[in-house]
What does this fold into?
Amino acid sequence: MPIEDGQNFRELSKISLVEAMSTAEEAVPDSKAIYGKLSVINGYLVYKVVMMDEDRGHNRVLVDAGTGEQLYVSDTISKDSYKNKRSYDKKHNKKMKDYFKGMTPEEVAEKKKQFKEMGDAWKSLSIQDRAAMIIHFMQMKMQWDTMSDDQKELKKQEMKEQWKDFLPLSPEEKKEKLEDYVKSLKN
It folds into this structure.
């Protein structure tokens, strides 16, 4: 769908995020849509949908926001391909070293297992639920931009506590918690 410069495109989409994610999942059958966003690319309104497979490989799918047609599917990017990018690797390694600082190798392995379970729980949600969560997180990001530094710090601490409670849960409990969270968004 063509868009003119400066045109407010948010209201112009003729399909929902759920429909775009469904189209993307049809285009890449062994993957799940984990994120989607309405964007203007080269003057056209599209949904950019990020897909993930069981091996944590990623694809990007562009879906026309007017017709719902799949426009483009990228090649799969393996999780290991990022290691070849020096700047990413340095930033990522620093973040990970800081995150796992002071943990034993067993604790690091347990944390990584918990994060994988979290990803699996996310992918097990329905497309409608994943879309609702994505929209919710986008709204949270817009609110974040208007918060004071003190409010941001308070919110960060609140989120850290939620993660501490969430990560040790079993995979099934994680899925139930996510489903409950989505239900709370719909009420």
